[in-house]
Amino acid sequence: MEKKKILFVCLGNICRSPAAEGIMKTISQKNGMKDKLFIDSAGTIAYHAGENPDARMVMHALKRGYVLDHKARKFNPEKDFQYFDYIVTMDNQNNADIKSLDINGIYKNKIFKMTDFSKEFKVNEVPDPYYSGPEGFENVIDILEDACNGLLKKIENDS
Ligand code: 4NP
């Protein structure tokens, strides 16, 4: 079976979406699903393109055993809409921005919000931690771990 392709999307592609990518890679490996998935991340803006993930996010993720290995890039509507099966945005603004690039609504069934897959956490968005303290980064990872498990279940059910 062809790999299912997942693209996590946030604003800068240095905090939330590379963390989601790293967490999903680790969780899918533990579940024996890693070979069935291709996992990447992107931002809606190019401001941090080429950069490594934010050092604070790298540190908080590593404390839980997640290695973040990614270079920031901007979402490319000409390639990413067609290539990926699940385009998973972090907050309402990212979601609206990605939907606005899908001018004819062709790809609307591929566009999700990360919190669509939350199980334990009653939240509507993965909040931007950029201007927060350490607790903001910990909160993001808590939400992402929960939602990654939910997304993995959905992909298993869809397959
Ligand atoms: P991210 O966080 O969208 O989770 O990568 C941010 C990164 C950079 C900025 C904002 C949020 N920024 O304003 O540069």
Provide a descriptive summary of the structure in words.
The chain is an alpha/beta fold. It has a single domain (4-158), classed as 3-Layer(aba) Sandwich (Rossmann fold), CATH 3.40.50.2300. The chain is built from 5 helices and 4 strands; from the N terminus they run βαβααβαβα. It has a 4-stranded parallel β-sheet with strand order 2-1-3-4, sandwiched between helices. Helix 1 links the parallel strand 1 (4-10) and strand 2 (37-43). The longest helix has 25 residues, at 134-158. 38% of the residues are buried. 4-nitrophenyl phosphate binds at residues 10-16, 47-48, 128, 130.
Characteristics of this structure?
159 residues, alpha/beta, Rossmann fold, four-stranded parallel sheet, 5 helices, 4 strands, binds 4-nitrophenyl phosphate
* Count of domains: 1
Name given to the CATH architecture: 3-Layer(aba) Sandwich
CATH topology: Rossmann fold
Order of adjacent strands in the largest pleated sheet: 2-1-3-4
Please report the first level of CATH classification, the CATH class.
Alpha Beta
The share of residues in helices is: 40-55%
Radius of gyration: 14 Å
- H and E order: EHEHHEHEH
Low-pLDDT runs: none
What's the mean pLDDT score? Answer: 97
In whole angstroms, the N-to-C terminal distance is 9 Å
Q: By helix and strand content, what is the structural category? A: alpha/beta
Quote the beta fraction. Answer: 5-15%
The beta-strand count equals: 4
Q: Mind describing the biggest β-sheet?
A: 4 strands, parallel
Give the overall shape.
globular
Name every ligand kind in the structure. 4-nitrophenyl phosphate
User: So how many helices?
Assistant: 5
Fourth-level CATH superfamily: Response regulator
